[in-house]
Amino acid sequence: MNNKKVSFKIVLGIFLLLSIFFMNESNGQETVEGLHFATGKPVQVTIQDGKILKVKSIEKLSVENKNLIIAPGLIDIQINGYMGVDFAGPDLTLDGLHKATRELWANGVTTFLPTVITNSHDRLIKSFTVLAQTLDDPEIRNSIPGFHLEGPYISPVQGYRGAHLEKYIRKPDWNEFLELQKVAHNGIKLITLAPEIEGAIAFTHKCVKSGVVVSLGHHNGSAEEITEAVDAGASLCTHLGNGCANMINRHHNPIWPQLSDDRLSISIIADGYHLTKEEVRSFYKAKGVARTILISDALDLAGLPPGEYVRGERKVLLTQHVVKFPAENVLAGAASPVSVGVGNIMKFTQCSLENAIQMACTNPAKILGLNDRGKLKPGLRADLILFTLDDFKVNIKKTYVKGELVFEKQK
Ligand SMILES: [Zn+2]
């Protein structure tokens, strides 16, 4: 064989391989079946190029899928860590973030905002420097659209500051925030602050103008201060009913003005411990399905065995369901993934699964402006979960992120 023939064959070979590759890509459809979360009727969802191509009614599901419900993936806008990986911890690595993301996929979470709470400037810089790597990481970037900064511009008053360390709480500082945004590669999408502290309103204006969602939390704002913050563009209340003192004035407290302003959505921890079922029910009645968002607020200890742990500079106690500071008997955070809230809100309010999914998928996507996900709708990303609902407990069987199967429960 002469050289010309050899090179012709090589070129032909490469051409054929490329053709097969592109044919597979363009025809690379996959179908997933389940009971539609809203209608309860069997549907077949066709996935192509990471998106939902169509959602079609079918006669019935195959025997192996017969009880599986299909819904959009869960979106958790406040989560501090998972399975021992602390998103704000000094030992955080990209590997740790991979591990936590995989564990969250197994719990049906397809999008989340790693959340960093009040800390020193240097510590925050370090946290966001590591977190920023996720935004370009091919394996997990599709699940992490950005981050939530909870603090450090919150109330220093005991009760309202909750688990945040007083020594690091400070007044809003736009220059500091810009520095954090820079190391975070502009990934801070949501900030929780207190409206009553000096400079908070002007800071809120700037955040909203720069595309950051401002949420009111860990505060003791008056009705006027809350209204001013909402006028400035604040649109959310962080874990309403928590991050609040135990003893409050029955008329003048931060809860009523936040509940009564229709411009504010609320996030709630419906783990069954952070709020009573009556609070969940009342908040839900006041805000309705459209303005309620479920969050986990899970700490890194979530998923680990109960016991005493040391976190940062403090000792904490992990019970079956929550994390506490044993000395003050204050809740430090939750230990249940947001899927637990989906079942609980149905149980506490008698809302439908359709409503619960809206509060855990559609609403969080909407508040963050993530228009490509949060619904089971053609054209949107194929972020899907398949699960059973047994006695208000969501049991995840399969999770897809952008059309890729990232979790499948072993039988
Ligand atoms: Zn908090």
Poorly predicted runs:
19-25
CATH topology label: TIM Barrel
Structural class: alpha/beta
Q: Quote the distance from N terminus to C terminus.
A: 55 Å
Individual helix count: 10
Shape: globular
| The CATH architecture | Alpha-Beta Barrel
Beta-strand content estimate: 25-35%
Average per-residue pLDDT, rounded, comes to 93
Compile the SSE list and pairings.
Elements: H1 3-27, E1 29-36, E2 42-48, E3 51-57, E4 69-72, E5 74-79, E6 81-82, E7 85-86, H2 94-106, E8 109-117, H3 121-132, E9 147-150, H4 174-183, E10 188-193, H5 200-209, E11 213-216, H6 223-231, E12 236-237, H7 255-260, E13 265-269, H8 277-287, E14 292-295, E15 307-311, E16 314-318, E17 322-325, E18 330-334, H9 338-349, H10 353-367, E19 384-390, E20 393-401, E21 404-408
Parallel strand pairs: 1-4, 5-8, 8-9, 9-10, 10-11, 11-12, 12-13, 13-14
Antiparallel strand pairs: 1-2, 2-3, 4-19, 6-7, 15-16, 16-17, 17-18, 19-20, 20-21
Helix pairs in contact: 3-4, 9-10
Structural features, described:
Helix 3 packs parallel to helix 4 (174-183) and helix 9 (338-349) packs across helix 10 (353-367). The chain has a single domain, classed as Metal-dependent hydrolases (TIM Barrel). The chain contains ten helices and 21 strands. It starts with a helix and ends with a strand. It is globular and about 70 Å long. Strands 5-8-9-10-11-12-13-14 form an eight-stranded parallel beta sheet. Strands 3-2-1-4-19-20-21 form a seven-stranded mixed beta sheet. With 411 residues, it is an alpha/beta fold. The longest helix has 25 residues, at 3-27. Bound molecules: zinc ion (ZN). The site of zinc ion (ZN) has 6 residues, from loops.
